[in-house]
Amino acid sequence: MTIATAFVDACVEELQAPKPGNVHVYAEGHRMTVADFVRSAEVSAPLLCRVGAPLGRRILDAAAATREAVGQNTNLGILLLCGPLAMAAYHPPSWAGVCGPPVAAGACGGGPDLPGHDGWQRLAVAEVLRAVIAASTLDDAEAVFAAIRIANPAGLGSAGRHDVRLRATVALPRAMAEAADRDSIARQWTNGFADVLGIGLETYETARARWTNPSDAALAAYLTFLAAFPDSHVVRKHGASAAAAVQRRAVRVRAEFERCTEPSDMMPELLAWDAALKAEGINPGTSADLTVATAFAWRVGLRSSTLDV
Fold first, then answer.
1. Which of 195, 269, 262, 276 is CA-nearest to residue 232?
2. Best CA proximity match to 78, nearest among 231, 295, 308
């Protein structure tokens, strides 16, 4: 399996889960279709996951390809999350100066296939991700800003400092830190992807072991994120009160989901809530993005506290 294939598989798996308020195979919505998301994954994967590309250019080229293919923003949050994860998964020898002593050429696998990590010292996955982000340049920041402008996500608004509508004047760690208190995706860039690697993967792995259908694990992760904190996308579009109401409902639904014998038993309730949210135009898109990132991290091996890097 290649990293690009792992990315597409994670995106498709998330679409198989009946995520209340979000697009899935049981109910489309928000003027978007399942086919839009599948096509977006397919065209963005080779660009986001290509060997040797800078972080910002990965995200910009993938966002541009998505816009050209489907004509709208379907995956900006996914790209922002999975760009650093893809780089951490490759972890080529050029990272030796950051992550440990030099090793023999090819010791980490390299190439387009999922790498091995033989010969590297052990390092926390979060630290690998922090190193990837810390090594980004002002050019990377400008590319990410351009990607956001291309996607033009709903409810973007403006910022007093480091507004993405202007040229970047600071590197990505500082720009993301400015938004971390109001955006769960930006927060991952500042905390070593703590939510994805923490509650996300813990929930996802437990569900994968419990049930045979991978999409049940994606649903479990989605409900966990939705219950853990207000969805950033809902806050931007509908306000804090609406996001808090969704979160409260998610806490109850998640508790019921954890008690159920079979996830299919929850389908009527999930689809009823899904229809109600879509009728109000509420889409917990950030929770869905975090779910894709979790499934992707699991597939590329970023699923333990440490990597042999």
1. 195
2. 295
The DSSP line for 4-39 is HHHHHHHHHHHHTS--TTS-BTTB-BTTB-HHHHHH
In a 10 Å sphere around its CB, with 0-12 CB exposed, 13-18 middle and 19+ buried, how is residue 185 labelled?
buried
Looking at residue 264, what DSSP letter applies? G
Predicted confidence (pLDDT) per residue in 160-199, tens digit: 554 555 677 799 999 999 999 999 999 999 999 999 999 9
Whether pLDDT at 111 is above 90: no
CA proximity to 189, closest of 243, 148, 133, 138: 133
CATH superfamily of 3-308: Triphosphoribosyl-dephospho-CoA protein (1.10.4200.10)
Supply 139's token pair: 């050019």
Q: Between these two residues, 215 and 91, which has the higher pLDDT value?
A: 215
The domain limits of the chain are: 3-308
